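User: My instructor asked us to take a sequence, write out its structure as tokens, and then describe one feature of it. I'm not sure where to start. Here is the sequence I was given:
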Amino acid sequence: MLRRFESTLALLLTLALAASAQERVDLGVVHQIKTEAFQNSKVMDLMFQLADVYGPRLTNSPQFRAAGEWAVKQLSEYGLDNVKLEKWGPFGRGWAYTSYTGYINQPQYQPLLGYPLAWTPSTDGPLTAEAVLAPIRTEADLEQYKGKLRGKIVLRDAPRDLALPTDPVGRRLTDAQLTDLTVFPIPTPPGRRGRPGQPRLTPQQARKFRERLNQFWKDEGVPLVIRTSDGDGGIVFGLGADRDSKDNVPTIVLAAEHYNRIARLLDHNLPVQLTFDVKAQFFDDNLDSFNVIGEIPGNAKRDEVVMVGGHFDSWHLGTGATDNAAGSAVAMEVMRILKTLNLKMDRTVRVALWGGEEEGLLGSEAYVKQHFADPATMKPTAEHDRLSGYFNLDNGSGKIRGVNLQGNDAMRPIFEKWFEPFKDLGAGTIALRNTGGTDHLSFDAVGLPGFQFIQDPLDYSTRTHHTNMDVYDRVQATDLEQAAAIIASMVYNAATRPEKLPRKPLPKPRPPRPDQTTPSAAAPTSAQPAARP
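Assistant: Let's start with the prediction itself. The structure tokens for your sequence are:
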């Protein structure tokens, strides 16, 4: 048995070496790409526009639509063909807020660091009321507070214990951590997840409970609800209310430290009076959304396509800089580099900047379903056969350290060869692991090669991801230049190699999730936290 295993391993190694030897990399072109990416970079100019000028870019908000029009204009000026806003939907109504004020009146004045959740309505002028702490996690909790909340501003979470931060906020991957990523992850039985004593809800269950809770607030005459942020140190984390509801109760998320002060005062039976004033607007004139699309036409194999992209939308607390103006700016910069250098490529290169990613990969799923295959039936179109692969960037602004193969073993020798010219830039780790939470999954779901790069985490998960600190100043310029150089080279290699990229077997048809019967009902992406009612 051991001898047979050794023989099989030797054969696989031989095949991998042969495949690697056949892979050609034009180092002259790589040098041109590096020079353009580092010496003539425009990636931070793109970042400025996406984050400072047009951010945040909540899907279907006025800022999102204005950013889309700007991106079309910019890509057209770069000389791309077939640049357009490609419609998909329905997504649902747009939303934006234009004003927020919150403060403690009594016992002492204090301005409150907070934000309205997306798709929460206005307060119709300043709202002043007494605060009450009413932590509600289950249906049973509703009975406890029935008849006690009318006219009160409700703090609906238990206060959080905030430990002293001792770990660094930002970090880069060490050599040991990168090595760990190359080890094949042996599956283990799923364990229990969630906080002790709190059942983990499915997205469908969380949605139903939110609807039930919102109706409870309305029935009880609660004018405004406050949540506590999952961040600390002044970092406010917040997503959205039910965007399909036209009857949400105004909901604010506060910095945990400010929330805790109010909760402590109430716990000591001291009355607390709060004032909030939120001005928000809904947009129902266009319920469809869009993806930004543009192309550099190929030559000998023009009908075949290589794609690059990232999601274009964001949440609304910051300006959507690291999530994901960074990925969109790099994708646009890749196209600028390839077009500026006038590189001759056999295949067409297409950029796609996705809408609706934050609400459940909606834009990329709609695009894949229209152009390539519906995962529910898994019947490939002609375009499915002509796509070589898709490269995605969406884990902050950290530099690329390698790539996740998404279980596609045949890509290992190819990526190993492609990464060789970038070892001096700290990149080259090849991980067989699957990684979730972003738009490459839409391609992988229908058997198409889709890849998300391994990036230095920096302060993405600790400070910027879905928070008020997701702003231009947290973006690392040289890291984005490095990412643009690497991805431009990968795209060029894929567009010029003799064969399309190897694929995994076509998956079996996958019925829609119970909570995803339509695009507007999709669950949040797996990049977001576990469902929180």
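For the description part of your assignment, you could build on this observation: The chain has two domains: 24-92+287-521, 97-163+197-282. Try explaining in your own words what that tells you about the chain.
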